[in-house]
């Protein structure tokens, strides 16, 4: 919720702004930031309680467990290991997903290191579910498409009809693309030109739809980066399609829970767009998945995480985290109320246009958004923060430090 109690200031080389205020001095800002952010859903439970054999988590504990599960405090993992552990990470914004992976990897990991994982084929990007681009591994992509591909293509049938793409045209486009990609990976513009040369119109959204259909059919994916790093080459998919779909579903559920828990069945169903009956059975088949209670909702979490449920964030100290646009901290769940108020969510997605802004977290609660004042490579470029929830003076200093140290650009 926008607050008039936090005047903006110029601090540490970047702007902290709040709506409706001109830029003011550090002294005014320092006198105003005095409270911790309002924690959505917080009921003030300090320790895990047990009802029968089911742990009952407070909202604070749930956020702490998620923060660790999401590796937002860092890890010792490589970019490939980060993505393999999470199954897939939201990837429609290419620069943002590179940052999201680097952020969760071992200290010193750069965006260039993440690009290198795509260049080597360790990571790929495609539309494995929900008609949304994700970064994943070749193996997880094969498993996801085995489970979701047919369902997703069926959901696109009406759009294909609107675009005038009949089965014969789709089949022809697939044949042309596969033949071209067997020789060399292609830029997006080149595959569209190849289709046009073959008499397949790509106007009016047809080209995009053909690309998505090709990839969901398991024939191609986005792989290595072009020399200038601005886009990825469309690459022929060679990984065999998963045949044991029960085992694949169990692996996907286990990875989703381990990298995002605690989560509800609704979260899991929303993320995969798969039926709850199969997801529930898959969760029950994974030994390391345990059940807990968050308010009135049963939640899944990894057994290793549940063992640390009694530990608070880091004593009484506040933890500040910056996440890039479209981050799984927000988009990895159907219900985002644990981490953001309604007003804060509106600020994250202005006008509900589907474009998620980078977020500032204090103890896992979204308190504001951040961005750079100019595009990458500009002579003068500083981070700009817009706080919409009140924060303490200590948290404000930690936000300064986090922005000054942000290495993933």
* Biggest beta-sheet profile: 6 strands, mixed
Low-confidence stretches: 1-38, 42-53
Give the oligomer, counting copies of the same chain as homo and different chains as hetero. Answer: single chain
Strand arrangement, largest sheet? 1-2-15-14-13-12
Task: Give the number of helices.
Answer: 17
- Mean pLDDT reading: 85
Count of spatially separate domains: 3
The proportion of residues forming helix, as a percent range, comes to: 40-55%
- Proportion of strand residues: 15-25%
SSE arrangement:
Layout: E1 9-11, E2 14-17, H1 26-32, E3 49-51, E4 54-57, H2 59-69, H3 79-86, E5 88-90, H4 94-104, H5 111-119, E6 124-129, E7 132-136, H6 138-155, H7 157-163, H8 167-183, H9 188-197, H10 206-216, E8 220-225, E9 232-236, H11 245-260, H12 265-272, H13 276-285, E10 289-294, E11 297-302, H14 303-306, E12 320-323, H15 328-331, H16 342-348, E13 359-362, E14 365-372, E15 383-387, H17 393-405
Parallel strand pairs: 2-15, 4-10
Antiparallel strand pairs: 1-2, 3-4, 5-7, 6-7, 8-9, 10-11, 12-13, 13-14, 14-15
């Amino acid at each position: 919720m926008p607050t008039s109690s936090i005047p903006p200031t110029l601090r540490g080389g970047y702007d902290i702004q709040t709506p409706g205020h001109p830029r003011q001095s550090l002294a005014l800002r320092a006198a105003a930031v005095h409270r911790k952010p309002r924690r959505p859903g917080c009921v003030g439970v300090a320790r895990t309680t047990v009802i029968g054999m089911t742990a009952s988590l407070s909202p604070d504990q749930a956020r702490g467990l998620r923060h660790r599960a999401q590796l937002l405090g860092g890890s010792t993992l490589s970019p490939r290991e980060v993505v393999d552990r999470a199954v897939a990470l939201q990837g429609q914004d290419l620069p943002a997903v590179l940052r999201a992976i680097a952020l969760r990897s071992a200290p010193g990991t750069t965006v260039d290191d993440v690009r290198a994982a795509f260049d080597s084929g360790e990571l790929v990007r495609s539309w494995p579910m929900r008609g949304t681009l994700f970064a994943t591994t070749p193996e997880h992509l094969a498993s996801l498409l085995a489970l979701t591909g047919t369902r997703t293509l069926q959901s696109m049938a009406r759009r294909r009809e609107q675009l005038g793409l009949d089965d014969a045209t789709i089949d022809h486009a697939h044949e042309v693309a596969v033949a071209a990609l067997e020789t060399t990976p292609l830029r997006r513009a080149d595959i569209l030109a190849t289709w046009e040369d073959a008499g397949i119109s790509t106007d009016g959204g047809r080209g995009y739809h053909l690309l998505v259909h090709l990839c969901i059919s398991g024939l191609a994916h986005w792989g290595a980066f072009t020399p200038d790093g601005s886009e990825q080459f469309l690459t022929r998919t060679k990984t065999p399609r998963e045949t044991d779909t029960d085992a694949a579903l169990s692996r996907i559920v286990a990875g989703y829970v381990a990298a995002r828990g605690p989560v509800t069945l609704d979260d899991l169903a929303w993320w995969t767009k798969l039926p709850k009956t199969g997801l529930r059975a898959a969760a029950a088949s994974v030994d390391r998945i345990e059940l807990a209670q968050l308010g009135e909702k049963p939640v899944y979490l990894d057994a290793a995480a549940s063992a640390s449920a009694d530990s608070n964030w880091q004593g009484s100290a506040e933890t500040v985290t910056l996440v890039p646009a479209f981050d799984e901290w927000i988009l990895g769940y159907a219900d985002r109320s644990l981490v953001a108020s309604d007003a804060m969510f509106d600020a994250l997605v202005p006008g509900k246009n589907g474009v998620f802004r980078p977020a500032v977290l204090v103890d896992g609660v979204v308190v504001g958004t951040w961005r750079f004042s100019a595009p990458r490579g500009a002579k003068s470029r500083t981070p700009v923060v817009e706080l919409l929830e009140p924060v303490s003076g200590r948290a404000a200093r930690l936000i300064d430090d986090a922005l000054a140290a942000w290495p993933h650009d």
